[in-house]
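Private note to self, pasted from the team thread so I don't lose it. Backbone tokens:
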């Protein structure tokens, strides 16, 4: 017979949260941008241990808690596998000259004045086409960071522009998993959700683009002009730069559009990169393999080193050398460690009912449509912070609030829009969330460094709350919808 467990009090549910916030604050103060390289992982596991003690006090046995942890980690396994493949792809795309070619040609068409605006627009287009902000960052995003740095722009602002565009595209794409998940949880149709979501998403991205455009005009248009020529010269001196190299990223994007799952598509992309490296950059492969002549052994060793380990292409130009580096699969291990630690914490909190207890308290304070939407947005953000996963931040609040929205006579697309405007977009702003850890690892920019410049992600939750309080585009249930729900 299973043991009888008690429901947690609000104070008990908040104890692990307070412990986590305390440790994280100390870590940021002491370790600053390096806090995600070990100290935050320890903080998450320590907070998970505290949550486990609370769970024991409520009557949960170790076996049940462990099942919650394993289930939570399993939910993030796909993300961790993708991270490993992204590391391999980054390595082979570096030695093949794909990323250097993107930087080289990007410097021809972009300048500081339009770069941030263009980076946001391009990222949005690619993300709409692929349905994945992660794929966007791992492909065009990596190249844009390199171009922006070469133009002398702060890496935090560059990453903010890329992430703003990528998350707009992710939300508006019918190929996106979260864009399909949100209406499924709320009980509405996919394209109804997308059309309705554009009312709040459109103004949010417009504000972001305007800020990036104005920001660009404050930058010196001639900044980095001399450096650009030096960067291109340094790249051309080491790599065989040509347009054939773009066949690989185009192939990956086509596979994603054709609904090939991300993992095999990216894996094939890394293999194509290795193949192109052997064809176009044999000298680079020899250099990476630390051999003197090109041979079968040198080719194998060079490709393998690029896939799994640290590589750096020396050009004699220090600023360029910083761009031409990759950590391979090995470089993603710290991010995976962070994700595992976060999911351990989220698993214990979910299993013991601590997250649900916190969310239920928030629901009780919602007395109007505006406060209900604000409560939903706040709950999504809390789950992104505590459960460390955007899917949980969509699924759990979606289940919790669906009845409350129906009781208020609100159409389900109100809920699905709020889930995306708050759950999807804020996940990337949390350093220990799977999305924040991923974007930081792929773009090579600390989460807290790019956070202030992710204007779209920061504006979106407030935009959906503003629309609710002003009663703008708040759709009510009609007779047919009510009959469908009751059936």
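Design output:
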């Amino acid at each position: 017979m299973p043991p009888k467990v008690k429901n947690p009090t609000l104070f008990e549910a908040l104890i692990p949260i307070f412990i986590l916030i305390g440790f994280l604050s100390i870590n940021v103060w002491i370790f600053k941008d390096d806090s995600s390289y070990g100290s935050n992982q320890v903080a998450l596991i320590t907070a998970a241990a505290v949550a486990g003690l609370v769970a024991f006090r409520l009557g949960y046995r170790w076996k049940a808690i462990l099942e919650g942890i394993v289930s939570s980690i399993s939910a993030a396994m796909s993300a961790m596998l993708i991270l490993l493949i992204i590391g391999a792809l980054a390595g082979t795309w570096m030695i093949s000259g794909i990323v250097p070619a993107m930087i080289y040609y990007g410097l021809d068409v972009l300048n500081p004045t339009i770069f941030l605006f263009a980076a946001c627009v391009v990222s949005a287009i690619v993300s709409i086409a692929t349905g994945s902000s992660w794929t966007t960052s791992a492909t065009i995003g990596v190249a844009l960071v390199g171009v922006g740095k070469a133009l002398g722009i702060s890496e935090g602002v560059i990453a903010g522009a890329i992430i703003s565009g990528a998350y707009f595209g992710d939300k508006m794409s019918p190929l996106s998993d979260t864009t399909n998940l949100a209406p499924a949880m709320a009980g509405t149709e996919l394209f109804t959700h997308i059309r309705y979501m554009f009312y709040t998403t459109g103004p949010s991205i417009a504000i972001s683009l305007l800020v990036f455009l104005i920001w660009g005009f404050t930058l010196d248009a001639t900044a980095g002009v001399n450096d650009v020529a030096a960067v291109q010269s340094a790249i051309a001196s080491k790599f065989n730069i040509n347009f054939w190299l773009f066949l690989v990223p185009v192939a990956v994007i086509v596979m994603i559009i054709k609904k090939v799952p991300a993992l095999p598509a990216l894996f094939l992309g890394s293999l194509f990169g290795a193949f192109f490296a052997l064809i176009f950059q044999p000298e680079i492969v020899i250099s990476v393999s630390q051999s003197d002549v090109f041979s079968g052994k040198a080719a194998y060793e060079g490709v393998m080193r690029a896939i799994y380990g640290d590589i750096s292409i020396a050009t004699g130009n220090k600023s360029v050398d910083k761009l031409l580096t990759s950590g391979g699969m090995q470089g993603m291990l710290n991010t995976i460690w962070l994700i595992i630690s976060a999911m351990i914490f989220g698993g214990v909190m979910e299993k013991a009912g601590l997250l649900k207890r916190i969310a239920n308290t928030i629901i009780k304070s919602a007395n109007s449509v505006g406060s209900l939407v604000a409560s939903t947005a706040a709950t999504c953000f809390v789950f992104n912070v505590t459960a460390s996963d955007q899917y949980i931040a969509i699924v759990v609040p979606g289940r919790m609030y669906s009845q409350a929205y129906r009781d208020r006579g609100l159409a389900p697309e109100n809920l699905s829009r709020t889930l995306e405007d708050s759950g999807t977009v804020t996940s990337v702003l949390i350093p220990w969330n799977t999305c924040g850890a991923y974007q930081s690892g792929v773009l090579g920019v600390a989460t807290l460094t790019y956070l202030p410049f992710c204007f779209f992600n920061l504006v979106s939750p407030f935009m959906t709350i503003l629309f609710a309080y002003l009663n703008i585009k708040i759709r009510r249930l009609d007779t047919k919808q009510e009959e469908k729900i009751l059936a």
